[in-house]
Amino acid sequence: MLLFLKCPNLFLRKNPPDLSFRTIHSIRRRLKERFWSGRERLLIMSRKKEGKNLKLAGLFVLLVLGLIILSLLLKVFFIFKNSKFDAEHRFVVAVMNNGKLNMVSFSPQNKSISILKVENKIKRDDISKTLEVPVDAIIESKQELNKNNVSNILLKTFLPFGNSVNKLNIVDAFRLFLFSRGVPLNSVYQREFSNELNDAQKETILSLTFTDPTIYQENLSIQVINATNVSGLGTRLANFITNIGGNVILVSTQDKESKMSKIIYYQKPSYTVTKLSSYFGFPLEKSEQKEVSDVIIIIGTDKISSNKF
Fold first, then answer.
1. Please, which residues have CB within 8 angstroms of residue 299's CB and are 6 or more apart in sequence?
2. 211-303 under CATH 3.50.50.60, yes or no
3. 194 C-beta neighbours (distance < 10 Å), count
4. Cys-Cys link to 85, which of 55, 163, 172, 276 (CB 3.0-4.6 A)?
5. Cβ atoms within 10 A of the Cβ of 138, count?
C-alpha cells in the first residue's frame, strides 16, 4: 500500500494492472484521503486531550485561588467579630516598658484619654487583680509612654516589627489609633498611682481614670455574694465594680459553697450586666422576680483562681 502511494509507477510494473489508469489514480486519491484524515483525527483527538488538561489545570488554579480568597475573607470576618473596642465605651490598655507600667484609659463618651502611671512593679498577669480595674489589652512597648506619644505607640502595634500586643487585634489597634489622633492634648490626663497615697486618694484616682460612663449612668444596684471559702473575694470584686462606676449596695458571704459563678439579672440584660459577664466569664441567668438589688453576682469556687479580681 505504501509503495503504491509513494511510487505508483513502480507498483504498477511489479503488479500489472487490470484496471484503467484513471481508476488507479482514483484509488490512490481515496487512499491518501483516508490516510491524511486518520492523521488529522489523531491530531484533533490529541488537541482535545490537551484542551481538557488545560481546562482541568485552570479549574484547579481557580479552586486554589477561591480557597485562598475565602480563607482571607473568613480571617477578616473573625478579626472584626473579635474586635472589642466599639468606639462608644471605655477601653483600657496596659502599656509596659522595661518593667514600667502605664494604664491608658480611652473614653469615647468624654472624648478623652487618661494615663495612670503605676510606680509599683506588677507582673503582667496580675495587673487587673492588683489594681482592681479592667485590662482589655496589653502592649509591650519599646518606648516609654507619655501624653504626647500615645498614637505613635498604637501605630507601631500594627506595623511589622513593632510593639508586641496581647488581646489586641489589628482592628482594635487601628481604631484606637484613629481615636487617639482625634483627642486634643488638653483632653489627655496624666495621674500617678503609688503607695504614698491613702486609700481614699487611691479610690478617687481609680474612679476618675476607669469609670465607664454607661455603667455609671445605668446606676443598677448590685449585690455581690461570695459563695466560696476564700475570705475577701467578694470585697475585691465589689471594689473592681465600684472603680468602673458600678453601684454596689451589698457584699455578703453565703454559708453553702457554690461551684458555679453566675450573674442574675432582672428583666433584660443591660450594658452593665453584659460587660461584667463578658469580662469575668460569668454566665447570665434571668430572674422573673426582683430581689434586693437589680443585679446579683455570685462568686463560685470555679473562679477562686481568677486573675481578674
1. 224, 225, 226, 227, 228, 233, 234, 237, 261
2. no
3. 12
4. 172
5. 18
The rounded distance, in Å, linking the Cα atoms of 107 and 213 is 8
Say how many CA atoms lie within 13 Å of 39 toward its Cβ. 5
Q: How many CA atoms lie within 13 A of 114 on its CB side?
A: 21
pLDDT at 3: 44
What was the pLDDT predicted at 4? 44
Q: In this predicted structure, what is the pLDDT of residue 70?
A: 81
pLDDT attached to residue 34: 58
* Residue 161: per-residue pLDDT: 60
**If you write DSSP's letter for every residue of the chain in order, what string do you get?**
-HHHHH-HHHHHHHS--SS-HHHHHHHHHHHHHHHHHHHHHHHHHHHHHHHHHHHHHHHHHHHHHHHHHHHHHHHHHHHHHT----SSS-EEEEEEETTEEEEEEEETTTTEEEEEEE-S---GGGHHHHHTS---EEEE-SS---TTSHHHHHHGGGSTT--EEES--HHHHHHHHHHHHTS-GGGEEEEEE-TTS-HHHHHHHHHHHH--HHHHHH--EEEEEE-SS-TTHHHHHHHHHHHTT-EEEEEEE-SS--SS-EEEEESS--HHHHHHHHHHTPPEEEESS--SSSEEEEE-GGGTT-S--
Contact (Cβ atoms closer than 8 angstroms) between residue 306 and residue 230:
no
Mean pLDDT in each 10-residue stretch from start to end of the chain (309 residues)?
Answer: 48 50 59 56 63 75 84 70 84 93 96 95 92 94 91 85 78 93 95 92 95 96 96 95 97 92 92 95 91 94 89
Pick the closest to residue 297 from 243, 255, 254, 245 (CA basis): 254
CATH number of 91-199: 3.30.420.590
Strand partners, 113: 106, 188
